Amino acid sequence: MGEAGAAVSGHGLIPEEIRQRAREIVAKLSLPEKAALTVGKDSWTTVANESVGLPSIWLADGPTGIRKAPDSAGMGIGDSIPATCFPTASAIGSSWDVDLAHEIGVAMGIEAQALGVQIVLGPGVNLKRSPLGGRNFEYLSEDPVLSGELAMATIEGIQSQGVGTSIKHFVANEQETGRMYTDSIVDERTLRENSLRAFEIAVKAAKPWTVMCAYNLLNGTYCAENRRLLHDILHDEWGYEGIVMSDWGAVNDRPAGIEAGLHLQMPHGKTVEGVVSAVERGDLGEERLDVVVTELVQIVLLADSLRRPDTPADFDAHHDLARRAAAGGAVLLKNDGNLLPLAVEPGQTVALIGAFAREPRYQGAGSSQVVPTRVDTMLESLPGAFGRDVNVQFADGYGPDGAHDANLLAGARELAASAAVAVVAIGLPASMETEGRDREHIHLPAGHNELVDAVLAVQPNTVVVLINGSAVTMPWAEQVPAILEGWLGGQAGGSALADILTGAVNPSGKLAETFPVRIEDTPSHLSFPTSGDGTARFTEGVFSGHRWYDARRVAPRFPFGHGLSYTSFTYDGIAIDASDFAEYDALRVDVAVENTGDVAGMDVVQLYIGECSPRVQRPVRELKAFRKVDLQPGDVEIVQFMLGWRDFAFYDAAAGQWVMDSGEYEIAVGASSADIRVSAREHLESSHTAPLTVSVNTPFRVALDHPVMGPMLQPVVKGMREYAPSDEAAEMMMLFMGDMPLRKFTQMGIFTDEQLTGMVAAANAG
Ligand code: BGC
Fold first, then answer.
1. Closest Cα partner for 148 from 99, 110, 221, 205?
2. ∠152-621-8 over CA atoms, to 5°?
3. pLDDT tens-digit profile of 676-709?
4. Residue whose CA is closest, atom 6 of ligand 1?
5. Cβ–Cβ contacts within 10 Å for residue 582, how many?
6. In angstroms, what is the span from residue 181 Cα to ligand 1's centroid?
């Protein structure tokens, strides 16, 4: 729900005795000792100071599972200590399930404790600005509310185990191309409503111990040295009490970072002396260093006080959870003729085709890459999942990296022709999805598309299972009867897909990102990944994700929020109680949801809001709340949403604040952004309107509406009427003069400068 009257006071993250101890410790430290604490000891740990009893803590990636390097000096990519590889954020995002995200967080917290990790580097809430984003698999969604809420649940889950998190990458790091030096140019409103919004939701509600600042510049200043971002917004406006650490290697000017509010540089770097001399020269105040070091010491002490090295981790149970989660995030995109779940009889053959079924991709490449405790494949899992004597035959279908292979293709075709049904596992090879590189296009490998066409030519009962971390084009989408998006589903992704194919689990995932027909249709197409001059201009403004497709009436392949089920749901009636809105800035929405099918299932009820006649350009509707419900056949649940004024607000950059105008709003509830089932309009009187100010630059017409300035300007209106030869001419004059900034009236001799500034001052004084 919206943060009605969200307080900006302290969060209560740090207990008083820890604050006290941190102050005492910092008071005993010399300048070089304090400076030393602000830079990591090595790749993964912080600097200890035994003389004052300050320990070191261990940080590890995140966000797909725990990636703890065998020793703190190495990077540990590919040789980290085995841990559960949960589904990637692309799948968790599509689960729309905050309880599931919380549960995974708890499991990750337990494993972190067991492995001796005090802070997990995740979750990642950068928005999927383009399907080309190389790291989209590591991010939750294209939408700030969905990302923020799921991140909040994850953080709460991990931190409930006494382990910290590092929500990342702060901020506007929505691409891989030039990620270390590109300047993200984002106008204030877009920044507040999109990139910052996901962080704002999670930071305010879940209090992550740390925030990881991004590599890139934001509007001309590196995030690592951006005081407005790290101090003014994060600390002052949001009341954040934790610490900011740099992304690995994101620091450029360490003293400037300390001034800005960057507590910890990671990993180790030779910057300590620079901090000491900046203080000695008087370029950096020692009081500022003391504040930053005290806040840093607080988090180290908090983490240390909650260490539980003997925590047992039940990796079998976590594998089961990973399986449930992968199934919860898989999205049934299409299911013509109810081809799924597979209704094969004992003795019939299922053709399982595609090397991914034998050797699955289950996570993306880069810093998030976990060494799993084990891996389930579809090939091993599918035969047993039927619970009856079904004959599952396998063919590879394509070569390494999706390459065309005539023999493999012929084998696949032959197998498909002889079977009752074909299940084709295709997707993106690892080389096409990795941290550090954006995708060049959004197509599947040619060998995969060719395989689908070949199988479809001989087998009408074809199911395509997609294994990928971000949207792809599907040239065969109209012809293939059933499509299941399995994402990069973690170490149990293979068994989870078998559960869905056989009907043991009813799919309930919904797209957390729009699937376009073609890349040219996407919101950031003309400015992603860069505008060619070292900048990434967020030219789509607030019309990102589904809002773009709605506003421009561009039909995507599959819309945001879309996902089918083996049962059906109806939405009956929408009741809005806004009677207390004026008093509490809150209103209630009730919707009855019924499972009208034959099997139990989960549905995601999505609530969107649009302002009917906005004075600024606003999206047709925006996601503001959602709820995943679990219903038995015939069950009805009244789903209740509480909305606050912020859910109706936009960021008024001129006023420098969130503003909700009074007026009519549409509250729409549906099964996807393009499938609104019930809606209602409500007139709401807001007590959070923009402050009424005038200046010498205010247009005459606008100033006339001001309660104090308006009456003062009436003589001008009267004079115009008298001067004009006819009513028509008066109207013309008003049309012309209405646009004039008030200062022009001094040039025209209507007021003197002094008179006008006096009137403006009187108006603004109320
Ligand atoms: C990534 C971070 C990661 C860090 C440590 C960086 O390159 O951007 O997400 O946490 O490395 O591995």
1. 205
2. 40
3. 999 999 999 999 999 889 999 999 999 999 999 9
4. 248
5. 11
6. 15
Residue 88 per-residue DSSP state: P
Write the residue with the smallest CA distance to atom 9 of ligand 1.
367
Same fold, 315-513 and 569-684: no
Q: For residue 579, how many other CB atoms are within 10 A of its CB?
A: 10
Is 80 exceeded by the pLDDT of residue 280? yes
Residues with CB under 6 A from ligand 1: 61, 121, 168, 247-248, 367
In percent, the amount of the chain with pLDDT more than 70 equals 99
pLDDT of residue 11: 55
Whether 2 has a pLDDT exceeding 50, the answer reads no
Query: Which of 44, 72, 79, 121 gets mutated to test ligand 1 (max ligand atoms within 8 A of its CB)?
Result: 121
> What is the value of pTM for the model shown?
0.95
Identify the CATH number of the domain defined by range 315-513: 3.40.50.1700
CA distances from 596 to 340, 568, 589, 628, 637 (A): 18, 5, 22, 16, 12
Active-site residues: which are they? 247
Cα separation, 370 vs 81, in Å, equals 8
Output the residue whose Cα is nearest ligand 1's atom 2: 247
- Smallest CA separation from ligand 1 atom 3, residue: 367
Give the residue with greater pLDDT, 233 vs 12: 233
Q: Which CATH class is domain 3-173+180-304?
A: alpha beta
Q: Are 554 and 521 contacting, i.e. CB atoms less than 8 angstroms apart?
A: yes
Cα 515 to ligand 1 centroid, rounded to whole Å = 27
Q: What is the mean pLDDT of the chain?
A: 96
CA distance 740 to 412: 73
The secondary structure of residue 620, as a DSSP letter, is S
How close is the Cα of 637 to the center of ligand 1, in Å? 42
CATH code for residues 569-684: 2.60.40.10
pLDDT digits (tens, 9 = 90+) for 595-613: 999 999 999 999 999 999 9
Q: Strand 391-395 relative to strand 663-672: parallel, antiparallel, unpaired?
A: unpaired
Query: Using 50, 70 and 90 to split pLDDT, how confident is the model at 12?
Result: confident
Nearest CA to ligand 1 atom 12: 367
Q: Does residue 5 have a pLDDT over 80?
A: no
pLDDT, tens digit (0-9, with 9 covering 90-100), for 368-418: 999 999 999 999 999 999 988 999 999 999 999 999 999 999 999 999 999
DSSP tag of 106: H
Cα 681 to ligand 1 centre (Å): 45
Residue 367 CA, ligand 1 centroid: distance in Å: 5
- How is the chain split into domains, by residue range? 3-173+180-304, 315-513, 569-684, 700-764
- Is the per-residue pLDDT at 505 higher than 70? yes
User: Two tokens at 756?
Assistant: 């006008």
Query: Which atom number of ligand 1 is nearest to the Cα of residue 61?
Result: 10
Q: 629 and 639 in contact (C-beta within 8 Å)? A: yes
